[in-house]
Amino acid sequence: MTTITLIQGDITRQRADAIVNAANSSLLGGGGVDGAIHRRGGPAILRECRALRASRYGKGLPTGRAVATTAGELDARWVIHTVGPVYSDAEDRSDLLASCYRESLRVADGLGARTVAFPAISTGVFRWPMADAARIAVHTVRETETAVEEVSFVLFDERAYEAFAAQVG
């Protein structure tokens, strides 16, 4: 069974086998978690992302999918990039958000990662309501069969931490 821990802090400062990046589909960096991971991880991450774009993901990484690169200068072996959905009142996209967590764990299993650090995917500029995002994230990790031994949710602020703590129990 996977152990779930909560950390309030900066995901780029975490030590884990794999750090999950809430990436944009271009895989070329951006704002929020994505930009922070690319800045702190250095140019090796961007080089591998460009190679992925040139080979398998010419049109970008689809929402809900995940792919790994080196972690560059981060205190991890890999970065697992996943593209979360933009929140919509008109369309239920919760299956795509759950897929981000499932697919990231699948990629982690393929790499042999035993510890994985996740951000609160889609809760920043993609505007997913924090309480609902926490519910989906925690439920999906608990229900996904994986060899990952520890999942850490690294939450940027107290509001996010409290929303995840309410789900972890």
Automatic annotation (TrEMBL):
Gene3D superfamilies: Leucine Aminopeptidase, subunit E, domain 1. InterPro entries: Macro_dom, Macro_dom-like. The keyword Hydrolase applies. Keywords: Hydrolase. One of its GO terms (molecular function) is O-acetyl-ADP-ribose deacetylase activity. Residues 1-169 form the Macro domain. Its EC number is 3.1.1.106. PANTHER family: GANGLIOSIDE INDUCED DIFFERENTIATION ASSOCIATED PROTEIN 2-RELATED (PTHR11106), MACRO DOMAIN-CONTAINING PROTEIN (PTHR11106:SF27). This is O-acetyl-ADP-ribose deacetylase. It comes from Streptomyces flavalbus.
